[in-house]
């Protein structure tokens, strides 16, 4: 999803939910941190967000802007309404969000290190590919990311995510040397 598409999604979500504040906890949060996000962000068709003050609007947002909606068929991307509980996020993530303004709408986007910690905790291939791309572009600091991973709960999630980080860093170094 390109930034202009994210703006379209946020404006539509605001209109449907009668809401001006959203939290973005997926890869689209990168748009708040970089003018040139990696291809993995641009190719993604979904925007994981939730309304901050009207959570009851979630079902309506899903129906009007979700994967199977007319909005998705028209635009080729969709809104996936989620809650922060769905992701493994480091302690204190709420204090580190970065605001992305779209007119009178504010999207509170995950800090890039918190986003990567969540992606490494999930450990799906697409998440590891995103982490590698973000690290290769140096949009995140490895030291900060390690510290955030250490704050994940429970301990086994942190350990697994640190192992994934080691693997991702090895792959980034290998690709950097071969290019």
Short structural summary:
With 179 residues, the chain is α/β, with parallel strands linked by helices. 50% of the residues lie in helices and 13% in strands.
Tell me about this structure.
It contains eight helices and five strands. The chain is of the alpha/beta class. It has two domains: 3-111; 113-178, no CATH class. The chain has a five-stranded mixed β-sheet with strand order 3-2-1-5-4. A hairpin with a 2-residue loop joins strand 4 (98-102) and strand 5. The longest helix is centred in the C-terminal third of the chain and has 24 residues, at 155-178. The mean pLDDT is 93.
Largest sheet: 5 strands, mixed
Strand fraction: 5-15%
Gap from first CA to last CA: 26 Å
Structural class: alpha/beta
SSE order = HEHEHHEEEHHHH
Fraction of helical residues: 40-55%
Low-confidence stretches: none
List the helices and strands and how they pair.
Elements: H1 3-17, E1 21-24, H2 39-43, E2 46-51, H3 58-65, H4 70-75, E3 78-81, E4 98-102, E5 105-109, H5 112-122, H6 125-136, H7 142-150, H8 155-178
Parallel strand pairs: 1-5, 2-3
Antiparallel strand pairs: 1-2, 4-5
Any descriptors?
five-stranded mixed sheet; 8 helices; alpha/beta
């Amino acid at each position: 999803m390109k930034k202009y598409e994210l703006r379209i999604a946020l404006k539509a979500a605001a209109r449907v939910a009668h809401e001006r504040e959203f939290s973005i906890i997926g890869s689209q949060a990168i748009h708040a941190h970089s003018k040139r996000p990696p291809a993995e962000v641009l190719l993604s068709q979904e925007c994981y967000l939730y309304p901050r003050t009207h959570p009851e609007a979630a079902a309506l947002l899903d129906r009007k802007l979700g994967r199977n909606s007319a909005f998705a068929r028209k635009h080729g991307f969709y809104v996936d309404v989620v809650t922060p509980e769905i992701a493994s996020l480091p302690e204190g993530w709420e204090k580190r969000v970065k605001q992305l303004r779209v007119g009178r709408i504010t999207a509170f986007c995950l800090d890039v290190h918190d986003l990567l910690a969540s992606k490494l905790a999930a450990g799906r291939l697409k998440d590891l590919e995103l982490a590698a791309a973000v690290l290769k572009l140096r949009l995140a600091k490895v030291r900060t990311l390690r510290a955030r991973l250490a704050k994940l709960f429970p301990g086994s999630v942190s350990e697994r995510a640190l192992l994934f980080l080691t693997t991702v860093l090895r792959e980034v170094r290998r690709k950097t040397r071969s290019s």
